[in-house]
């Protein structure tokens, strides 16, 4: 099972979460969309993570989604958002993830986000229960993929 985690970050939360997921999902590949534009063809599942500023995902993530939208529909996909305002989550999902992709996604969760304009290295912002629920959904979806292949 080939799994790719893609993310873009400005203040570090999305990268922190990508690393957190990668420690749980053994053998996956992690890729910073600010540095590379990966070919997703060989992968079975794509996890996409982005920080949110002014209601928008970061540009490399939006460009990636736009460019790969059709191919993504053929994959298992999941999204995590790093954003600080829970009340703005639904709007951010609707604004940034094409409806078809959102519908077909295994899971879309906010992992919380760093409070703006404060420098702090702690991880109090992290919503661990959402991370755990996300990982649970990913493993369930991978089980399904395995079963369907047999
Ligand atoms: C200029 C600025 C704008 C932001 N706008 C939003 C926003 O619209 N909605 C939200 O929920 N969080 C917002 N945040 C909080 C970020 O989503 C949070 O800091 C998150 O950790 C960013 O992800 P990153 O650390 O991976 O870059 C904003 C933060 C900054 C600094």
Please write out the topology:
Elements: E1 3-8, H1 13-24, E2 29-32, E3 45-53, E4 56-57, H2 59-72, E5 76-82, H3 89-96, H4 99-104, E6 107-110, H5 128-149
Parallel strand pairs: 1-2, 1-3, 3-5, 5-6
Antiparallel strand pairs: 3-4
Q: What is the CATH level 1 assignment?
A: Alpha Beta
Straight-line distance between termini? 13 Å
Summarize model confidence as the mean pLDDT: 95
CATH superfamily: Flavodoxin domain
Helical residues, percent? 40-55%
Q: Name the ligand types.
A: flavin mononucleotide
Query: Which term fits the overall shape?
Result: globular
The CATH architecture would be 3-Layer(aba) Sandwich
Largest sheet: 6 strands, mixed
Structural class: alpha/beta
Instruction: List the helices and strands in order.
Output: EHEEEHEHHEH
Here the CATH topology equals Rossmann fold
DSSP summary: helix tally: 5
- State the total count of DSSP E strands: 6
- Radius of gyration, rounded? 14 Å
Q: What number of structural domains do the residues give?
A: 1
Tell me the β content.
15-25%
